[in-house]
Amino acid sequence: MSKGPALFSDIGKKAKDLLTKDYSCDHKFSISTYSDAGVALTSTAVKKGGLSTGDVAAQYKYKNTLIDVKVDTESNISTTLTVLEILPSTKTIASFKLPNYNSGKLEVQYFHDHATFTTAVALNKYPAVDLSATMGTPSIVFGAEASYETTSGSFIKYNAGFSVTKPDSSASIILADKGDTIRASYVHHLDQLKRSSAVGEITRRFSTNENTFTVGGSCAVDPLTVVKAKLNNHGKLGALLQHELKPKSVLTISGEFDTKALEKHPRFGLVLALKP
């Protein structure tokens, strides 16, 4: 693939991951195994409130083709087929979910040294078409995305954004919700391995004059343990502790607390992922 600009979906992703990834108020357990034939199997059980769910996922990779299949407790079967280089510098992704026969989707991504393009089409009678494009370099990216609905003949979504990435920091601004929301974020890495970082994000919704400001960060306590925390101006405080029990096997304990509603009980989550 090209070493050009990132996809539009990657603009602001570093800040989003720092503020949302691995935070959970559910209880989740997953175990993965690998067969000699190259098939990876993952079984997951999740308890959310009083409801328990689960799924079994299989992944198989052969040369430039990746197949993912997932079956959940409601007998839904989700399948994703990813193929690299059907055409030069492209990635093709086909997905569908059974028994929902109208859930199929075909996406093609094209990578160039100075631009990327993606097109996604729903595989049904009245498909929606998603388009996105970026221009620039790995360090500076300008981009836009839109979604066109064929049933109404109108654009139901259009966003724009740009990002600047340096070895120790990343900044981005995204204009979303048809221009109604602007989101700016900044991430600064505190060490060369990027295991300790600080992040700030501010979001303004013009139609309601609502502002949301969130600060957070992660800190590597030792080579196996990471602590993360975040707090926004509405008083929502989140924190997590993540410890690598053995290579690729991780225990995550997280919690959320509303500092402006002390009568509410804090929520806690526990995630255990075991891999060979």
From TrEMBL:
Q: Say if the entry is tagged with keyword Membrane.
A: yes
Q: Where in the cell is it found?
A: Membrane
Gene Ontology molecular function, alphabetical: porin activity; voltage-gated monoatomic anion channel activity
Q: Which Pfam families match?
A: Porin_3
Q: One GO CC annotation, please?
A: mitochondrial outer membrane
Parts of the chain that traverse the membrane? none
Alphabetical UniProt keywords:
Ion transport, Membrane, Porin, Transmembrane, Transmembrane beta strand, Transport
What domain of life does the native source organism fall in?
Eukaryota
Q: What is its main location?
A: membrane
Q: Which family does it belong to?
A: Belongs to the eukaryotic mitochondrial porin (TC 1.B.8.1) family.
User: Any idea what this protein is called?
Assistant: Uncharacterized protein
Q: Which species does the entry assign this protein to?
A: Tetracentron sinense
